[in-house]
Amino acid sequence: MHTDLPSNDFSALFEALESDPDSYLRGEKAIFASAVGRSFYQQLLPSGSVTLGWSSWSVQWLSRTPALIPDQVQIAYSHDASACAAFARQAAEDWHAFLLHRADELKPGGQLVVLSMARTATAGCHFELSPGIAVVNTRRSAPKAAVFTPADMKAVTG
Ligand SMILES: C[S@@+](CC[C@H](N)C(=O)[O-])C[C@H]1O[C@@H](n2cnc3c(N)ncnc32)[C@H](O)[C@@H]1O
């Protein structure tokens, strides 16, 4: 099951799945690719139906633009404290909503891997491309994410 915003051109995806030599559908008659066109800040799939989820390089897009950025194009490079705080608040709110919906969708013991950019511990608005994140607790009351560093990732992927 693939998901993206309703405005996404899903035909490019299905074309690639059909014709790419590395497609997971190649030679497989019993795999049925499908797609949901809805924001991942809402529930996407039936509760308790997902064993393994994957999200790569997408959750850095917030649900809305919370403020104008007066000094830069991207918030990651801004030195405007008010804009930085507004984006940080929105990011925290969106991340919480994202986790709650994924927690609903995952089966007990199911797992979700999220690859995204993360803010460095030191600088207010400054981002670096880094961790993979896995949801380890799928209880809706308190979903939690464990964060893996690039070194952890390397140890797993070799
Ligand atoms: C850089 S692409 C990553 C695509 C793919 N996951 C990959 O790793 O190649 C980011 C995708 O996130 C989608 N996206 C952004 N905001 C979204 C949202 N709120 N809900 C669902 N998809 C979203 C965009 O439409 C875009 O297709």
Structural class by helix and strand composition: alpha/beta
Number of β-strand runs: 6
Main beta sheet: strand number and arrangement? 4 strands, mixed
What is the CA-based Rg, rounded? 18 Å
Q: Which spans of ≥5 residues are poorly predicted at pLDDT below 50?
A: none
Q: Given the structure, what is the number of helices?
A: 3
3D architecture notes:
The protein is of the alpha/beta class. 27% of the residues lie in helices and 27% in strands. The protein has helices spanning 10-19, 81-105, 150-157, and strands at 2-4, 35-37, 50-56, 106-119, 127-137, 144-148. A hairpin with a 7-residue loop joins strand 4 and strand 5 (127-137). It is globular and about 55 Å long. The relative contact order is 0.14. The structure holds S-adenosylmethionine. S-adenosylmethionine (SAM) binds next to loops. S-adenosylmethionine binds next to loops.
Key attributes of the depicted protein:
158 residues, alpha/beta, 4-stranded mixed beta sheet, 6 strands, binds S-adenosylmethionine
Q: How would you briefly describe this protein structure?
A:
The chain is an alpha/beta fold. Helix content is 27%, strand content 27%.
Topology overview:
Blueprint: E1 2-4, H1 10-19, E2 35-37, E3 50-56, H2 81-105, E4 106-119, E5 127-137, E6 144-148, H3 150-157
Parallel strand pairs: 1-2, 3-4
Antiparallel strand pairs: 4-5, 5-6
The structure holds S-adenosylmethionine.
